[in-house]
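--- STAGE predict ---
source: upstream dedup step, 1 unique chain passed
mode: sequence only
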Amino acid sequence: MAAWTASDIPDQTGRVAVVTGANGGVGYPVARELARRGAHVVLACRSERRGTEACARLRAEVPAAGAEFRPLDLAELDSVRAFARDFAGDRLDLLVNNAGVMALPYRETADGFEMQIGVNHFGHFALTGLLLPKLLATPRARVVSLSSIAHLAARVDPAGLGSGHRRDHRRFRAYARSKTANLLFVHELARRLAAAGSDVVAAAAHPGYAATNLQLAGPRMEGRRLAERLNALGHRAFAQSADRGALPVLFAATAPGVHPDAFIGTRLQGWRGGPARSWRARWTLDDTAAAGLWERSVKLTGVAYEALAP
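--- STAGE serialize ---
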């Protein structure tokens, strides 16, 4: 792939997109560039204040943009269900499962999941399933889920997922496990969509090392000032901008020829650069693990994806 930029995004006029976590980080430029190309974008964010401010900022940067804020807290399945229930319209062309948390101290979601697997995987699993009828009704719809090169650090044991285990918690391992879960989810979703004869494309993307608040939230939450300063220094020395980090996501979401279960990352060994096909660990292509995670996720979230064949 040569020098693909946001200017290469195909015309999105008439398309409807939902971007979770669109108030900042990589999610904001993803939403902004989709709107710039004509999509109507729903900024699905936990914080009403930040979501409303981001929506106003987007409209200021792109005056003709069609954009709206809708509340969504992926750490509460009731909030996910409310978002899906109240989502208006008969179509959904694009769902970008972008929101996430990274390397947090031990926390649990409202439903008792360890926070990182709860937000990064279970919340998005439920959201995608609840919005699936609109995706299936929309020709050439796409689902793009954000993973990370950090998935290389951990596998997933589906049987071990559910309530957190405070004594065994390792913040970076928990994050890596959630990112492996994202790739296994996309793998199984793509398989089930194909089995159902659907043209919906499920793909994954990662932004490389992008300078966002994602790496700073955990240290800040614990008051680890040295870790926060070191992460901020890493941003200045090594990271690419959030706008650059958004490009692999935008490519996976809009470029022609993106195939089901693709994993789009950055050109320079998963670190930085323009969109390119990303290497992924072999365990993220394990059919048995993917099916096991799927069944466990259905059981724990109560979202069954009834329209898709097993």
